[in-house]
Amino acid sequence: MNLPNNAFKEAIAAGRLQIGLWSALASNIVADILADAGFDWILLDTEHAPNEVAGLLPQLQAMSRSSATPIVRPAWNDAVLIKRVMDLGVHTLLIPWVQSAEEARRAVAATRYAPDGIRGSAAGVRASRYGRIADYLQQANSRVCVLVQAETQEALNQIEAIAAVDGVDGVFIGPSDLAASLGHTGDSNHPDVQKAIEGAAKRLRAVGKPAGILTRDHEAARRYIDWGFTFVAVGSDAGLLARGADALAKAFKRS
Q1: pTM
Q2: Cα–Cα distance measured from residue 147 to residue 132, given in angstroms and rounded to the nearest whole number
Q3: Are the beta carbons of 97 and 136 closer than 8 angstroms?
């Protein structure tokens, strides 16, 4: 049994646009529904969603037949959390709140086995198909895709240094926290925030590093794609459910 290539990692390295969806409902049934929707990637969030490690497993199992790459955002840039997520077979991670090149290096190290990093090894985990991939420990490092979040002015100030860290495959701009950092909490469409986002995309393009972002605004998503963002999440499962339910109720309720 062989370890598959990381299709998402290969796609963004080649500059191919990857459209994704955020999943925060912590449900294997939701993951099963989303799996066949046609997205290139689906992010299972544990930072701002009630997802715990054990709950990720049935969601990953529900997605296993899908061509969408599962991405997991650990709750923090923590080697223990990252190790546990990766042992479930996740090879693409989005690490939140990376403020410097040193923090980016720490994130990368947590995803690599020695001598390239500090990831602890275990023989019988899902990642190695319970030991059936005999050379998993030798193959795994090359399959990992590390995305780091730059979501403050401080991080943007160091974005080239963060992007240059060996093992960082892409930099994700967090629009909500960036807006707060710039003094425009709750308003990621403020001109100052949009200018910062566009500038970040331009700077990442200049150093050849794929850029990612999340928005539920279709117009903004198209704008970000035009600005050169390579991996773009265009909504969330919670948002789709809430707005769909609101629209359906409004269509039938008397005013």
Answers
A1: 0.97
A2: 28
A3: no
Does the domain formed by 7-147+210-252 have CATH 3.20.20.60?
A: yes
For the chain, domain boundaries:
7-147+210-252
CA angle, 131 then 135 then 137, to 5°: 85
Contact yes or no for 163/157 (Cβ under 8 A): no
Count CB neighbours of 237 within 10 A.
21
User: Residues in the chain, how many?
Assistant: 255
Model confidence at 255: pLDDT above 80 = no
Answer whether 190's CB lies under 8 Å from 127's CB: no
Cα 106 to Cα 27, 43, 141, 178, 222, distances in angstroms = 30, 21, 15, 22, 33
Cβ 23 vs Cβ 106: under 8 Å:
no
What is the H or E stretch that residue 44 is in? strand 41-45
Q: What is the mean pLDDT of residues 217-241?
A: 98
Distance CA 93, CA 109 (A): 13
Nearest to 40 by CA among 73, 16, 75: 16
The pair of three-digit structure tokens given for residue 85, joined into one six-digit string: 């997520």
Q: Which two tokens stand for residue 225?
A: 């794609």
Q: Could you give the 3-state DSSP secondary structure of residue 229?
A: coil
Q: Spot the catalytic one: 48, 91, 184, 190.
A: 48
User: Does 48 participate in catalysis according to the annotation?
Assistant: yes
